[in-house]
Amino acid sequence: MPSLILGSRSLAAWSGRTLVIGVSGSDPVTVTAGEELPKPTAKHLDQALPVLDVSAKVGATTTLPAVPGLKADKVVLVGLGTTGEGGTDALRRAAGAAVRAAGKGSVAIALPHADATELAAIAEGAASGDYTFSAHKSARDTVEDREITVFSSLEGKDSPKDVLATAETVARNVAWARDLVNTAPNLLFPQSFAEQVQQVAKASAGKLTVKVLDDKALLEGGFGGIVGVGQGSSRPPRIVTLSYAPRSKKAPHIALVGKGITFDSGGVCIKPSAGMLTMKSDMAGAAAVAATVVAAAELGLPVAVTGYLCLAENMPGDNAQRPGDVVTMRNGTTVEIIDTDAEGRMVLADGMALAAESGPDQILDVATLTGACVVALGPKIFGVMGNDDELRTAITEASDRADEPSWPLPLPVDLRSGLDSFVADLAHKGDRWGGALTAGLFLQEFAKDAKGEPIPWAHLDIAGPSFNEGGAWGHVPKGGTGVAVGTMLEHIASLA
């Protein structure tokens, strides 16, 4: 994890490894620095840009060694847009791409920004682009943390030092979520996940409380959904409750419920082998929830936040759940199992029922839930459903601010009948049509208080963007992305 520091010297005086400068436009491409460039530097770049056919496409990079007027070893020119795209998205993605292109050594970033929001995007993007996962590498391959200097002319109420401190906190917790997702499934399972949450909470500067329900407590507590999913594995399930409460007793309270399937084989409805390779990432929702609660506590947000991490391993062991089984959920609802590879909604439903018991003002659930959502929206956009239009809109707006693209999806009433069961209160899966929507309709049944009244609830299906199987792009690395942490933090901050 890099440290973010505010530039205190001129660009000419900075003597580190790589200086990042922005370019924009198309004909011609021009330098767009966040600080005044020395005259020899500006002249050299003006001459070099057309000769090198430098691209200003967002995130495109060009490296120039030994630029006159600078002590930096090299300059990385990064595109900010060819047609005036601009905004925080371009700045975040450009900063991430530039830091990755810089390679080893110290980095300084001088990108234009008009306010604290744009500065935060630059800082978060830079830290995000620096992410690497080395936990399973040999010692000689480990990557040392480095300093990233961010130049800014902001002052006064914008408080650039505070902006960078906040960005570093957010980036550190996003990196933790990514680490959890990238960890091999033989090393991350329900118990070890719970233990890591306990360790992080203990070491955190935030005031956090952790409670773990083990398999015995889950069975005695009537959590039939998560118990059923986990009973085919030799490594039993857990529900971890991670809580942060501000000083004010009148603060709003939001509950976050995360799907934490540490490996999903599909159970007895086993997946094809090719479909299992990335199934260590089926706990990305729980990882995002854990990281969000810790970040909210460390930032001291004036909102009470409780995370429920629903952790299980879905395996086809000799006691595995079968299609046709009927289980009783935490809230007393009986559910007929249709497909053991639709296990996520079962662990989430128990978590939501537990969350509802605490009387939160809102419930958000986050899950790598359905392939149908990926088919509908592609690999970079997550779906948002809910029983409250205002909340659903608030989540999509928060995702825009965090540069985590989302799209609102409906919960059609006419699809609800597909969840009717002849033998139980609910069938846990509908037919193939509208699979993401029927999953949302199932979860909606558990966003209710003890009297059966709806609690404002939104469902974030992050199956597409939670794991990047392709190459890194912009500020997004290969592997676990940590998606939804930024969105949830933006939303929580807005409640204050």
TrEMBL record:
The active site is at residues 271, 345. Mn(2+) 2 binds at residues 259, 264, 282, 343. CDD domains: Peptidase_M17. GO terms for molecular function: manganese ion binding; metalloaminopeptidase activity. Keywords: Aminopeptidase, Cytoplasm, Hydrolase, Manganese, Metal-binding, Protease. GO terms for cellular component: cytoplasm. Presumably involved in the processing and regular turnover of intracellular proteins. Catalyzes the removal of unsubstituted N-terminal amino acids from various peptides. This is Probable cytosol aminopeptidase. The lineage of its organism: Bacteria, Bacillati, Actinomycetota, Actinomycetes, Micrococcales. The gene is pepA.
